[in-house]
Write a structure and sequence with these properties.
CATH superfamily of the largest domain: Aldehyde Dehydrogenase, Chain A, domain 1
Radius of gyration: 23 Å
Distance between the termini: 75 Å
Largest sheet: 7 strands, mixed
Shape: globular
Strand order of the largest sheet: 14-15-16-13-12-17-18
Number of domains: 2
CATH architecture of the largest domain: 3-Layer(aba) Sandwich
CATH topology of the largest domain: Aldehyde Dehydrogenase, Chain A, domain 1
Structural class: alpha/beta
CATH class of the largest domain: Alpha Beta
Bound molecules: adenosine-5'-diphosphate
């Protein structure tokens, strides 16, 4: 038998080794771009008010982050436009939606779900063009899960009193919903589906860099014959979001985004009657014990931080690995990141697409530089990057100390910080040593250990021997500075109901 080539973790600046031969050349794929033929969209979108598209007067461009070319223009809603949207929702709430039987509301929500399924391919392509995420991610995760959320909550609309036995659940009124750019359509679904099922009307604001699928969703709402005003959608920047938050006739705010903005919103709403749920940042830890299925765990880590460019608030951006298996795990990780295909989001083989925007790319670079400056060891994929577009090579750090910025701050990019531990207590202590508390993963062969560790973790979502798995029936949300309130499942109805 011939000797195996030596495989080891590659450090920056070192010459190409056998790993390149094995994983670079041998595993190369021919381009397989998804055709953009089936998609049609306008050059400009205003807002969706009272069941109609209305123009704005101030326009800005949403850029395709993989090409740096403007993709579509959208209008910026000012306070008057937000007021128009809120009044439209109020009227729809009083006139139809709160009076409608749950079984009737369910039919609309079910219809929306079906139409998302029917237009799944178009929505996936648009999501990838506007946001930069790989088509296999938008096609297999974002769009099917968005449809699943509408299906799931359609089922609850006529069963609210069974969801909360003994209570008399009533809708709250008009919900203002502000969403981020990492899962544009899916976040719209997470917000709209439970709110509508519970009998509320909504004013939704997509993120400024990813408005396109929200505008397509507006087309779907129109085609589904949803009564005018039940959902209004306004485009714009943070100012538009603030106008929704501060509008006197909004009864509830649901926000997903950065912890900094979440704090601003919480301060703005203090002392008002408005209800609030916040889903904010995270610094999720994946804990690998020595008895874990190591290859499976490495794949889970890759999924948790590198797929979708690390643009996931519940990303597993820290890896805590038991010292006895650290060398093996780091070696395998080093090999695996060389096989990740970075590039055109519309290519069906792409694993890591474009970073959503230039400022986000700069933020990732700045934090990675801080890791090097603070003395951590950088390991980076040597893949070629496209000449244009915002791309970042999958990167992980070893020799990370818990006080390093890369171990504490949310990077929101394909960057992993690896630390080791000797005892379960140390693993728990390190995992909880962050201001956040959104997600965690535990990898071990022993079920009892999984449950014991999970019980000690301050995180809203904990996966055992897997990572980043979602289902509409399962509640999602944070502890500490990751926010409060739950989305998904029966719990996801609660923020939109008054239980009398
Ligand atoms: P990120 O850092 O992930 O871009 P942000 O928190 O800045 O997250 O943005 C998330 C959403 O919040 C976007 O739709 C954005 O326009 C909106 N937003 C930003 N600032 C404010 C604000 N002060 N009030 C309300 N919404 C805001």
């Amino acid at each position: 038998m011939s000797a195996q080539p030596e495989l080891r973790v590659e450090r920056e600046g070192q010459p190409k080794k056998a790993v390149d031969l094995l994983f670079g050349d041998l595993w190369g794929y021919a381009p397989a771009p998804e055709s953009t033929g089936p998609v049609r969209f306008e050059k400009r979108y205003g807002h969706f008010i009272d069941g109609e598209f209305v123009a704005g007067d101030k326009w800005f461009a949403s850029v395709n982050p993989a090409t740096e070319e403007p993709l579509v223009e959208v209008a910026e809603a000012d306070e008057a436009m937000v007021d128009r949207a809120v009044q439209s929702s109020r009227k729809a709430y009083d006139k139809y939606w709160k009076k409608m039987k749950g079984s009737e509301r369910a039919k609309y929500i079910f219809r929306i779900a079906r139409m998302i399924q029917e237009r799944a391919r178009e929505l996936a392509i648009l999501e990838s063009m506007d946001g930069g995420k790989p088509i296999k991610e938008s096609r297999d995760i974002d769009v099917p899960l968005a449809a699943a959320h509408f299906f799931y909550y359609a089922g609850w609309a006529d069963k609210l009193e069974y969801a909360f036995p003994g209570g008399k659940p009533q809708p709250i009124g008009v919900a203002g919903q502000i969403i981020p750019w990492n899962f544009p359509l899916l976040m719209a679904a997470w917000k709209l589906a439970p709110a509508l099922a519970a009998g509320n009307c909504c004013v939704l604001k997509p993120a400024e860099t990813t408005p396109l699928t929200a505008m397509k969703l507006a087309e779907i709402l129109q085609e589904a014959d949803l009564p005018p005003g039940v959902v209004n959608i306004v485009n714009g920047f943070g100012r538009t979001g603030a106008a929704i938050v501060n509008h006197a006739d909004v009864d509830k705010i649901a926000f997903t985004g950065s912890t900094d903005v979440g704090k601003i919103i919480q301060r703005a709403l203090a002392g008002t009657k408005k209800r609030l749920t916040l889903e904010l940042g995270g610094k999720g830890a994946n804990i690998i014990f020595e008895d874990a299925p190591i290859d499976q765990a490495v794949e889970g880590i890759i999924d948790g931080i590198f797929f979708n460019q690390g643009h996931v608030c519940c990303a597993g951006s820290r890896l805590l690995v038991e010292e006895s298996v650290a060398e093996t795990v780091i070696r395998k990780l080093g090999h695996r990141i060389q096989t990740l295909r970075v590039g055109d989001p519309l290519d069906k083989n792409t694993d890591v697409g474009a970073i959503n925007s230039k400022p986000q790319l700069e933020k990732i670079q700045e934090l990675v530089d801080s890791g090097v400056d603070q003395g951590a060891q950088k390991h980076q994929s040597r893949c070629d990057l496209p000449a244009k577009g915002y791309f970042f090579r999958p990167t992980f750090f070893t020799d990370v100390s818990p006080s390093h910025r890369i171990a504490q701050e949310e990077i929101f990019g394909p960057v992993l910080s690896v630390m080791t531990f000797r005892t379960p207590e140390e693993a728990i202590e390190r995992a909880n040593n962050t201001p956040y508390g959104l997600s965690a993963g535990i990898w071990s062969d022993k079920g009892s250990k999984l449950f014991k560790i999970a019980g000690a973790m301050q995180a809203g979502v904990i996966w055992g021997n897997t990572f980043n798995k979602f289902d509409p029936t399962s509640p999602f949300g944070g502890y500490k500075e990751s926010g409060f309130g739950r989305e998904g499942g029966r719990h996801g109805l609660l923020p939109y109901l008054e239980i009398g």
